[in-house]
Amino acid sequence: MLCGGSRASVHLLDHRHPPTLGAKVLRQSSFVLRPCLAKSQQPMKSSSSRSHCKTPAPLDCFSQGDVNPKLSAEGLFPVAGGIVALGKFDALHIGHRELAIQAARIGTPYLLSFVGMAEVLGWKPRAPIVAKCDRKRVLSSWASYCGNVAPVEFEIEFASVRHLNPQQFVEKLSRELRVCGVVAGENYRFGYRASGDASELVRLCKEYGISAYIINSVMDKNQVSGNTDTEEDSKSKERGQVSSTRVRHALAAGDVRYVTELLGRPHRVLSRARTQDLTSKGRRVTLHTSSLLNLPPGNGVYKACSLIVGDKHPISCKVVVDTSNLYIETEEECFHNSDESQEEFLLLGIEFG
Questions:
Q1: Per-residue confidence (pLDDT) for residue 66, from 0 to 100
Q2: Helix, strand or coil for residue 223?
Q3: What angle do helix axes 256-263 and 94-106 make, rounded to 10 degrees?
Q4: In the predicted model, what is the mean pLDDT of residues 262-271?
Q5: What is the mean pLDDT of residues 171-176?
Q6: How many CA within 13 A on the CB side of residue 165?
Q7: What percentage of residues in the chain have a pLDDT greater than 70?
Q8: How far apart are CA 240 and CA 223, in angstroms?
Q9: Is residue 182 pLDDT above 80, yes or no?
Q10: Which end of the chain offers a freer environment for a tag, N or C, measured as fewer CB atoms within 10 Å?
Q11: Can you list the domains of the chain with their CATH numbers?
């Protein structure tokens, strides 16, 4: 792992991983390098600063609330000495995966996410694309792309950084979080009112002695997809850039094959249902949409789906989605009549292939 200094070049693509989607480094900060081991290898000096950062503990879909971050014995945040990918990671799509791949090529990979943006900015509440308790599973599936290391997500309350200008934000990364480097896409914006761009990120990281790598945007096969009914990602949509907004449009249109291409995996919808609320008649199960933990595809009939009940093997099924319910028809009976002595809630997963 490399970190800090003042003039020299860094060769990022060491080809330990197979090339993916043609992404490549556009520019990077350039300086004399000093060894910078991850926190598990060499503790770094503690920063006296405190933050409102949060890092997720292993989550289950029956727990409520966030867990406060725990500093190490040396007073460090978990990302200290790591390489953080910067972005909005709502969908965890193939563009986000590419950032994680590049981060893993340099050091220990993290995703730096901001929570509470909708509340602070007054956006209308909307269901997440990936259920919060399912994000660790998705990131674990990226390990094979990242040198057998699963990226870890580190969360910061957006309210705590909203008013930071670009320089203050990079200062926080360097002096408080003690990261070793950052990876971002070519269109990345940061700082108050998104006033900083990728070029400024490289410049500021050089000033604060951390490495910065800017990579090409990951493009999908369709140059235009969906209607641009919001300003968010409108420019990237016109160019065919993979984005969370494109995933939402494809889900709304019921194009699950296209969603799979954008995500790099089948879309999985989770339901946290009370056992007594499950309507099961033979091989047909009815779920109310109020039990869903993330965004389902639009109304329609979906064949070649899979139903995951707890830790059991997936069961082939057909799913009918309407405004109020999901109707799941399986090839075998998967539920039996339950009594009150059994667990109150059941976690179900539906994968749309």
A1: 47
A2: coil
A3: 10
A4: 97
A5: 96
A6: 3
A7: 71
A8: 4
A9: yes
A10: C
A11: 83-215 (3.40.50.620), 268-352 (2.40.30)
| Tokens (6 digits) for 328 | 């799941």
Q: Is residue 210 within 8 Å of residue 203, measured between CB atoms?
A: no
Q: How far is CA 250 from the centre of its chain?
A: 18
Q: For the residues 92-121, what does the mean pLDDT come to?
A: 94
Give the model's pLDDT for residue 228.
44
Written as six digits, the tokens of 222 are 């369709």
In terms of C-beta density within 10 A (0-12 exposed, 13-18 middle, 19 or more buried), how is residue 182 classed? buried
Q: Token pair of 59, please?
A: 């989550």
Mean pLDDT of 212-231: 71
Q: Fill in the amino acid letter for 66.
A: D
Q: Which of 177, 148, 197 is nearest to 84 (CA)?
A: 177
Sheet containing strand 300-309, strands side by side: 267-274, 345-352, 300-309, 315-321, 325-330, 284-288, 279-281
Residue 59 class from Cβ within 10 Å (0-12 exposed, 13-18 middle, 19+ buried)? middle
Distance, CA of 260 to CA of 93 (rounded, Å): 9
CA distance 80 to 152: 12
Average pLDDT of 334-353?
Answer: 73
Q: Per-residue DSSP letters for 175-209?
A: IIS--SEEEEETT--BSGGG-B-HHHHHHHHHHTT
Mean pLDDT of 201-225: 88
Which amino acid makes up residue 141? Answer: S
Record the tokens describing residue 110, joined without a space.
């993290």
Radius of gyration over alpha carbons of the chain, in Å?
22
56 close to 155: Cβ distance less than 8 angstroms = yes
Counting other chains too, the contacts that 216-221 makes at CB distance below 8 Å and 24 or more residues apart are: 216/22, 216/23, 216/24, 216/26, 216/185, 216/186, 217/23, 217/95, 217/185, 217/186, 217/187, 217/241, 217/242, 218/21, 218/23, 218/94, 218/95, 218/98, 218/242, 219/21, 220/246, 220/261, 220/262, 221/261
Q: Environment class of residue 174 by beta-carbon count within 10 Å: exposed (0-12), middle (13-18) or buried (19+)?
A: buried
